Amino acid sequence: MLQDIGLFGGLDDETLAVLSRELTTEHVEAGDTIIAEGDERQVMFVVIVGELEVVKEGKHGDVRVAMFGPGDWFGEMSILDVQPRSATVRAVAPTMLISITTEDVDRIFYRRDVRSYALFIMNIARELSRRLRVADGILAQFMTNVTESYAPKSS
Fold this sequence. Notes:
Layout: H1 13-22, E1 24-28, E2 33-35, E3 43-49, E4 52-58, E5 61-68, E6 73-74, H2 77-80, E7 88-91, E8 95-101, H3 102-110, H4 114-150
Antiparallel strand pairs: 1-8, 2-7, 3-6, 3-8, 4-5, 4-7
C-alpha cells in the first residue's frame, strides 16, 4: 500500500517493509483535531483512509484552505523546520493516519540509508513546490479580481 503513496515514491522494497513495520497508525473520528495551529510537535501524517480539512484562524472564525484524502500527507513542514504549525487540521470523516516523527525520519531514513532519506525529502520538496504553485495561482487570480473590481474604468 505504501508504494502507491507519492511520499514514498522511489523507495526500495526493503525500506517500504521497514516503514510498514515501524511506523505508527492512528485512528481518528470526524471532528477530531490532529494538528492545532501554533502547535510545536514535530510529526507529519499520511492519510490512509478518510478525509480531513485544513483551516486557518480568521477574524470571523475558521476558514477552510484545503482538504486531504487517501494518499495525501500533511505536517511535513514540521519535519523540515522548527516553526509552530501554520494551520489546524481536523478530520471530517473517520480517518486512519500514519504518523512520522523527526525521530522516525532520522532512524528509518537518514541513519539507515542516505539514498532513501534523499528520496523522501525530495518527495516532500516536490509536493511543497506543487502546493506553492497552486497558492501562487490562487493569489494571482485574487489580485487580478481585486484590481479589476477597484481600478478606475477607462472610457
